[in-house]
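TOKENISED FOLD:
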Amino acid sequence: MARTAPAPTLGGTLSSLPVWKARLAAMAACTAPGVFARLGGVHVPPPIGCLVFGAAVIAAGFILGAAAEVAEVDLPSGLAVAGVAFVAVLPEYVIEVFFALSGQAELVTASLTGATRLLLSFAVGMPALAAGVMALRGRQKRRRVRRQREVMIKPEKRIDLAVIAAASAYSPLIVLRGRLTWSDAIVLIGLYILYLRRISGGDPEPPHLVGIAAEIGKLPKRERKRWTFGLMAFAAVAILVTAEPFAHAVMGTGMLVGISPYLLVQWLVPIATEMPELVVAFVLVTHQRAAQGVAVLLSSAVSQWTLALGTLPVAYAIGPGKGPLPLLGPERVELLLTMALALLAVASLVTLKLRRSDATLMLVLFVLQLLTPSPLLRAGVTLIYLVVAFDILTAERWAIPALFGVLRGRSPEQETGHSPPVRSGRRSPASAE
């Protein structure tokens, strides 16, 4: 009697796939429970919903991020810049717009301020964090690890710093008025459009792909485009379907355990939605590509601090809200704190040289503002950020004109009449002489 071949099993199928395809399949599987629960109208208790829908958002974010990186290989420079910049903040953007459209004014700024602070704090602090992790691993393996004392940022990233500084300088006007208006939307979205124009005008640079993106990037062009489009479409649908119930689950969990929904939305949601960028940046830093890791987080922060913030009053007006988007007292403090943190990030990077001491200071202050939930204490932390930022900018004032020049499309040489000085310490050119 002839023996029949055993039927193929799911485990056998997965084991026969290349590693990158198996990883994609695993991430796609993580989105399935959340997507099916939402589409099927299944009631999920808030704590379980945080896990189910949160896993879907995070997994879809990783897929979307990988596809967006590969898209930079084939798309024209300007289109790639616009698409990737938007895709980077899509998970967080969907949740922020949802709060605005639903008229929940008290929560509109929660995830935005949390995400912006998270991105900027780790843009500056990631090299110090990665150095600590690598040193710990080296100690465990009893070997020396070379520590990078300084990270040199590419001059092209001045436009990111300039736009963040401009948006931060404008934000106190929003706080003083106590509302987000159409005029704010015009200014902030205008800054974002200016940002896109500036970064798309330079010579395109081949992206440095890692992980799954690197494997897809090796495929033939036609097959690569099919994979990129398919993954982006799948991930975008998964995010649009699960982002709203994830936000609801976070708020419901907060009410069950007695934690402020605002604080949970401010930190739990951004940690989930920004996890792909944070992981990519960490991998780049640990692979001696610290400047690229910083650049990834800076670009996402620009999108949050301009496009996302500028869209909120528009979404609020389209929804049930009447008139400008109101900001209560605590929300004004949150915006001011975010503004102060952004200015410190700009100050730390204004010379395009990130020192390990500045990175460590940013991480310490980030933890400090996490541990001060009181609005009064947060106002004190805001003052600390401003004092430190002012001190650094005063010492490095020679580098500030280059930021204003890049907004006008001028090079640092055109702005100052000579190449910007390169200093090993925190001194102005005058004191150096």
About this structure: The chain has a mean pLDDT of 81. The first strand starts at residue 150 and ends at 152. The two ends are 95 Å apart (CA to CA). Strands lie at 150-152, 179-180, 325-326, 353-355.
